[in-house]
């Protein structure tokens, strides 16, 4: 919205600053951060009053989690409201990629909100039916895949770009949309599975978002893409505004989610943020790089898949408990140790993902 102030500029005054994506990205970050600090405590107090017993705790979970009983959930509302406010304020609202990512984020956020509400109101860990969640998630992802295909330049439509290999494109034709669906749905659910310890999911999400934001900015500039040998996707630079707002809102949330958490993100936040990462990867033609940058989420999801398949076949478990962060809890690792080590892994993977921009 503030971008249109640049139209008042003659090129030599203050308003001209609003033309620059990097300047608006900084504004989006601080707007979301301040929003989180101002409204975080009132929101938590409201959630505590309305939810009573807070998020239900699994009976078969680690014993240390029983001490968290009474902690309110749906803290993702803080991130999403800060993200929406900041993005609408600082981004160009005539940019299709911004609306694509916002659509996926808040559509998945609505599914997560319904699931959290069902859990709290019923006072048990069973929320919305998994089948309904999956169907709704698939519908959203299909719309996003078609939308992204329509937004992409003709030379990149329905194409899969490979990292490291310069100028290599694989024509997926009608398979592109199903592929985009797998990326978005998989990302949303992988982040959802990772959100099991205080602060565990939000920092890797911010790291991944920051990385994808840089990628979006780079592939949205023809000069950078020519120098690095990347595929130019005009318009994606505005996604940096969204990711900056996400990081600001995420830090505002982490202020209250740091151990011991005053509020949980809930499915409201984890599904929304995971879907956002998937949508950004599809928009920027960096779906495979997402698997590197978000490698922690991939491992968390795979640990659940492996556990379920192996147990059904043999009646035995590979891990003491899945997702894998619970395995380490069962082994006696302190929660803070798991969280910080997983943060470090996320940062290393993000740097590897960024390196693919130069390795050609």
Short description:
With 360 residues, this protein is mostly helical.
Total number of domains = 1
Into which percent range does the helicity of residues fall? Answer: 55-70%
Content of β-strand: under 5%
Largest sheet: 2 strands, antiparallel
Gross morphology is globular
- Name the strands of the widest sheet in spatial order: 1-2
Radius of gyration: 20 Å
SSE string, helix = H, strand = E?
Answer: HHHHEEHHHHHHHHH
The count of helical stretches stands at 13
- The low-confidence parts are none
Describe what this molecule looks like in 3D.
This protein is an all-alpha fold and 360 residues long. It has one domain (2-355). Helix content is 64%, strand content 2%. It has helices at 21-51, 76-90, 96-122, 130-151, 176-194, 202-219, 222-228, 239-257, 266-283, 287-293, 295-314, 324-330, 335-355, and strands spanning 159-161, 169-171. A two-stranded antiparallel sheet has the order 1-2. Strand 1 (159-161) and strand 2 (169-171) form a beta hairpin. The protein is globular.
């Amino acid at each position: 919205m503030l971008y249109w102030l640049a139209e008042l500029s003659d090129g030599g005054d203050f308003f001209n600053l609003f033309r620059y994506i990097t300047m608006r990205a900084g504004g989006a970050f601080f707007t979301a951060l301040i929003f989180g600090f101002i409204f975080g405590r009132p929101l938590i107090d409201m959630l505590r009053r309305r939810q009573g017993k807070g998020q239900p705790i699994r009976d078969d979970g680690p014993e240390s989690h029983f001490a968290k009983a009474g902690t309110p959930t749906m803290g993702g509302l803080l991130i999403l409201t800060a993200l929406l406010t900041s993005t609408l304020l600082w981004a160009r609202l005539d940019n299709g990629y911004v609306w694509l990512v916002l659509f996926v984020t808040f559509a998945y956020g609505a599914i997560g909100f319904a699931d959290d509400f069902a859990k709290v109101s019923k006072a048990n860990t069973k929320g919305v039916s998994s089948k309904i969640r999956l169907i709704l998630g698939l519908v959203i992802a299909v719309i996003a895949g078609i939308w992204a295909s329509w937004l992409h330049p003709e030379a990149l439509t329905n194409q899969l770009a490979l990292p490291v290999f310069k100028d290599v494109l694989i024509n997926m034709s009608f398979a592109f949309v199903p592929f985009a669906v797998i990326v978005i749905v998989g990302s949303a659910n992988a982040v959802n599975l990772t959100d099991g310890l205080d602060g565990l999911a939000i920092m890797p999400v911010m790291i991944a978002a920051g990385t994808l934001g840089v990628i979006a900015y780079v592939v949205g500039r023809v000069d950078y893409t020519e120098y690095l040998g990347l595929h130019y996707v005009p318009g994606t630079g505005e996604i940096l505004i969204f990711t900056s707002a996400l990081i600001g809102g995420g830090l505002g949330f982490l202020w209250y989610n740091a151990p011991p958490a005053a509020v949980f993100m809930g499915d409201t936040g984890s599904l929304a943020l995971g879907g956002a990462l998937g949508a950004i990867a599809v928009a920027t033609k960096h779906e495979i790089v997402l698997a590197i940058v978000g490698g922690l989420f991939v491992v968390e999801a795979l640990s659940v898949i492996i556990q379920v398949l192996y147990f059904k076949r043999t009646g035995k478990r590979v891990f003491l408990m899945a997702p894998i962060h619970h395995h380490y809890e069962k082994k006696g690792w302190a929660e803070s140790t798991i969280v910080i080590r997983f943060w470090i892994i996320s940062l290393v993977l993000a740097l590897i993902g960024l390196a693919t921009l130069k390795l050609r």
